[in-house]
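MODEL INPUT / OUTPUT PAIR
PAIR INDEX: 1
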Amino acid sequence: MKKIASLLIVFVLVLAMAPAMAEGERIAVICDPVGVNAFLTQVVEKVEELAGTYGYEYRILECPDTDKWQASYDAAVAEEYDLILGVGWQSAEYAAAKAAEVGDSIRFAVIDTDAGSDSVASYSYNEEQGAYLMGAMA
């Protein structure tokens, strides 16, 4: 249930943000190791697909441990990506801290969490609402 709702959120976010990206702009996607994680695999596939459609560049930064999250956000900011997209609850604190540090020069967004910052677009969901919708559809 959670995966279906997460997938819908990812598609809506990526489809909503992709047209706003100009050709040649760059996106950094920061997440756990993709591996066989179906949710992260779908995120990466959709980012690749939309990069081909809209002409933006992207880089996937995988974080195998907690220390790598901070290093990945530092690297993405240093490389001046136009949009930094964090996927997963771990990204909230790093995105909020970096957004406060750099101001409006870089856009930040997080999926599956709430960064608690007006400078970070947060996309999450209420599990009970997804369960209700699935029940209504059934």
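PAIR INDEX: 2
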Amino acid sequence: DTFKKAVDTDRDSQDTAWLVGIGTKWNKFKLDYNYRDTQRDAVMDTFNDSDFNRGGTAARGHKVKLSYKLSKNFSIGGAYLAAEDYSTAGETINRDTLQLDLKAKF
């Protein structure tokens, strides 16, 4: 019983998530940056950012996004996501993701 209470108490405290970021535009460039920490029980995986840490929770890290407007309707860009997954007790896994985008507006 004591062990179960200790485990339950620990899991109950894993319900916080936060994100802080900044973005700017300069001529045809757009830059966004954010840092986030999403604990294990903070949100359902369904509502979490699917690109960051493979969509899972219990992770913290950075997201940097840069885009360049080619014309009125087209832009290119890229995003780098650096996640530190701490879902496994005593172990952290670094997950780096690079995305390249070509966007068209109609």
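PAIR 2 NOTE: Residues 3-7 have pLDDT under 50 and may be disordered.
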